[in-house]
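Good morning C.,

I know you're traveling, so I'll keep this short. The sequence:
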Amino acid sequence: MRQFRRCIGACLLLWGCSASQPQQEIVSTFMAFLSDVKAGEQEKILLVAPFLGALPASKRESAVISFRVFADAEPGSLHTEVARGSGGTYLLRVSVPGSAAAMVVPFHRNAGGRWEMSPNLEAVRHIDIVPAR
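The tokens, ready to paste straight into the viewer:
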């Protein structure tokens, strides 16, 4: 009976680790992307966000500026959450504590098996609602 419990425990541990692997990969991909944004590595930026390559240079730069808020923040201060989306996508929600800046970034695996951003980024703004008296 004791070995059966150990076997079940080991199976649950392995299942939990494998279930969280895409989330960990996405967070590490995004953190590397932020490092590339901070360093200005255009080639590496386009590997993770290939849709930026189709934009004119001025629009591409304004899109990259929205990521600089997160790139300039201290890496340990970013709050990230990854949730499973539909059709094999995952949604990364990233925010800086104490700031109104937050973003939801969809990720999917490309044909080469690498995680890349989908072009539908969403900026999240919090609005405080105070009831009238």
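Safe travels,
E.
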